[in-house]
Design goal:
single chain; Thrombin, subunit H; 6-stranded antiparallel barrel; 1 helix; 45% strand
């Protein structure tokens, strides 16, 4: 797991839609979110470099790749970072969602 972060992480526990390229869509537990990525609990084993997409409330699919995977946790880096205002809005919406 990396110790250096590009952006501050917002801790939370909620559910989002997750899809690995070529795989089924799943509901997964999200543990934190930043402008450039997130940490989640995937239902399948992931490897660094796997291409994924996530669906956050009110947004089109957000694409990214697995930066690291350790056991049943993985860090995702987004292809395009969130603008600070969009990140704040998404975080507010996610806080209102139940955990997986």
């Amino acid at each position: 797991m990396p110790t250096q972060r590009r952006n501050e992480r917002i801790a939370m526990t909620c559910e989002v839609d997750f899809k690995r390229h070529g795989d089924a869509r799943y509901k997964v537990e999200l543990f934190d979110l930043s402008a450039s990525g997130c940490c989640l609990s995937p239902p399948v084993r992931l490897e660094a470099g796997d291409v994924v997409s996530l669906r956050f409330p009110g947004l089109a699919a957000v694409h990214g790749a697995v930066a690291w995977a350790q056991g049943w946790r993985a860090g995702i880096v987004f292809d395009r970072p969130f603008h600070p205002a969009v990140l704040a809005d998404v975080a507010d919406r996610l806080r209102q969602r139940p955990a997986a």
